[in-house]
Amino acid sequence: MAKGRERTGRVEPRFEADGPADPASLDLRLSRGDRAGGDVAKGASKGSSRGSAKGSIKGSSKPAPARALRAAAPRRRRRSFLGTLVYGTVILGLWGLVAVAGIVAYHASQLPPIDQLAVPKRPPNIAILASDGSLLANRGETGGRTVSIRELPPYLPRAFVAIEDRRFYGHLGIDPVGIARAIGQNLTRRGVAQGGSTLTQQLAKNLFLTQERTASRKIQEAILALWLEHKYTKDEILELYLNRVYFGAGAYGVEAAAQRYFAKPAKEVTLAEAAMLGGLVQAPSRLAPNRNLPAAQARAAQVLAAMQELGFAKPADVQAALAKPAKPARAKGGGSANYVADLVMDVLDDYVGKIETDVAVQTTVDPAIQAVAERALVDELNQKGARYNVGQGAVVSMRPDGAIRALIGGRDYAQSQFNRATTAKRQPGSAFKPFVYLAAVERGLTPDTVREDAPITVKGWNPENYSRNYSGPVTLRDALAHSLNTVAVRLGQEVGPKAVVQTAQRLGITSPLQANASIALGTSEVTPLELVGAYATFANGGMGVIPYVIASVKTVDGRTIYKRAASGLGRVIEPGAVGMMNAMLHEVFVSGTAKKGDIPGWDLAGKTGTSQDFRDAWVVGFSGTLVTGVWLGNDDGEPTKKVSGGNLPVEIWNRVMTAALRGDKAVPLPGAARWRRGSNAVAAAAAPGEPQTLGGLIDDLVGGGQPPARQAPPPRGGGPTREDKNFLERLFGID
């Protein structure tokens, strides 16, 4: 046993024969050396194990004090407060980096893969141009075309850098200095006083993210900003920004904003205007110059100061800009060019299909005639509208080939976007009578044919003349010039209401017409555009017309994707019939209801019209070079106070035509000279056939109509184009 204990070093307790020692004399406390691996224990094991145990229990050996044992152990160095702080900060920083990396990784995972990320295409802009190339309106989601930074004056992009991101050319997409400054400002002002977003971050938000203000969006914004900086140069990023940022009022990009607020392209803005645009993006609604000019000018002054501080503008130029701050351009007239733009957008896809890039649509509209027509209509309604209880109107001017030169769809586009020129169907009254007379002429009558002006009854209906007087026997020339209702009804009954409808359709009337006795007095509704288009057939000598407004469409790089080809519907009225009709319609301006509209030196022809209870008042008149129609009335059909075709509409018509024909060479009306009063012309039989050109086209489209009595010679011309057919279908609702 003893040998075994010595080998193992195990100390067994011994109990003396004289009894247990005094418990108070025993030191049973454990020191560090008593623990396994303790230095003292290790040292003790080298000596006599038994002796140590014996001495401890019996007290025969002097035990080592606990203090001595603790002193024998190695001491641990205590850190200073500063060291502890540094150590904790490092640890916290490392964990913070891990947390940030995790957050970034999480939000990055919510984005599309970087290798698949691409800048989304900007929605295409459609620039609608007048015939002289000037801008009428922009259409599309952006409100303006894309511009290159090289097109712009240098101070325009610098204005945005100065006020929005002065370290733009130095950072990598995120500006720590700007963020720190923004945090400090926001803390001191107890709210969101400043943002720390760079131009690159703003672009990232506009391109890829929503406008919500959350921490998640800001993190994604920063990630995308770094990607943009890696992918594009600084100038490319700035160009993208200038073409995408929102300026209010539906304007995206500097070109749209310059057109919207200053009525000029971005390349022509002044330094003061550039500063106003640069300051506008902070709060487009609050700082829009057309809504809050003082605030917009104050913000522009801040931009100018920043530009001077950074050396982006010379002090003298800044002082000049401050002395003459920018102001928004005043709206011109009633914005009637937008009615033209709406018409273009209604039919454009029939010409070019889906649009993938910015395009410029060249129209046939003459901006000078458009402006005169708008001013004439607005002035007349402003001066006399209240007295005559008339609130709305429309004007259409057209070349004899169908090219629209002016189109006014209402008094004020901002007040009402309803296009009365193309969409409003109203009763034309006596302005419809030329179709009745043409049907009669094509059946052998002449301007000198006599018919009775006397009371007439048709199935209980008793039409009366406007004056309620009757002249007895009159020539067709005088009956049309003085708009005698009884003669028109007699002629309508003589040729038949169906023939009247067919004749009107052949000349371009596409609205549904009721083949009844009252059709002779214009009781079926039509639009101003189709009525003017039908009269253009008289002005051009008898060739069928479909109105058109688009001349060509080009991409921004000049590539032509559509150009109107020479086309025509062919002859729809024989020359002899055209001459007789023009001679009779000329008399309307010589001695008839439109004589107030006569223009010295010009052969003019046309017809006035007034619907029942003075609800609608019309005049459509033409020279050999231009056709113009005017309608006045109220949208709700309320009667006017005796507005007739011969008063207010003729005044507007005369003002428009006088300006439009100024400087043009007067030309005779086709065929009219032969049939003028006292010309000794021999009444020749008009060709009786009814050419099936435009009428046949309309019959094919609407699926109705009666075949003509006789077949005419083949039409001269290429026939209607696909675009012409689509135009009819879209514009007039033909299925």
TrEMBL record:
One of its GO terms (molecular function) is penicillin binding. Gene3D superfamilies: Biosynthetic peptidoglycan transglycosylase-like, DD-peptidase/beta-lactamase superfamily. Pathway: Cell wall biogenesis; peptidoglycan biosynthesis. Residues 394-615 form the Penicillin-binding protein transpeptidase domain. GO terms for biological process: cell wall organization; peptidoglycan biosynthetic process; proteolysis; regulation of cell shape. One of its GO terms (cellular component) is outer membrane-bounded periplasmic space. It catalyses: [GlcNAc-(1->4)-Mur2Ac(oyl-L-Ala-gamma-D-Glu-L-Lys-D-Ala-D-Ala)](n)-di-trans,octa-cis-undecaprenyl diphosphate + beta-D-GlcNAc-(1->4)-Mur2Ac(oyl-L-Ala-gamma-D-Glu-L-Lys-D-Ala-D-Ala)-di-trans,octa-cis-undecaprenyl diphosphate = [GlcNAc-(1->4)-Mur2Ac(oyl-L-Ala-gamma-D-Glu-L-Lys-D-Ala-D-Ala)](n+1)-di-trans,octa-cis-undecaprenyl diphosphate + di-trans,octa-cis-undecaprenyl diphosphate + H(+); Preferential cleavage: (Ac)2-L-Lys-D-Ala-|-D-Ala. Also transpeptidation of peptidyl-alanyl moieties that are N-acyl substituents of D-alanine. It comes from the Bacteria. Residues 1-17 have a biased composition (Basic and acidic residues). The chain crosses the membrane at residues 85-106. Residues 41-72 have a biased composition (Low complexity). Residues 141-308 form the Glycosyl transferase family domain. Keywords: Carboxypeptidase, Cell shape, Cell wall biogenesis/degradation, Glycosyltransferase, Hydrolase, Membrane, Multifunctional enzyme, Peptidoglycan synthesis, Protease, Transferase, Transmembrane, Transmembrane helix. Residues 1-73, 685-735 are annotated as: Disordered. Pfam families: Transgly (PF00912), Transpeptidase (PF00905). In the N-terminal section; belongs to the glycosyltransferase 51 family. In the C-terminal section; belongs to the transpeptidase family. NCBIfam families: PBP_1a_fam (TIGR02074). This is PBP1A family penicillin-binding protein. It comes from Methylobacterium terricola.
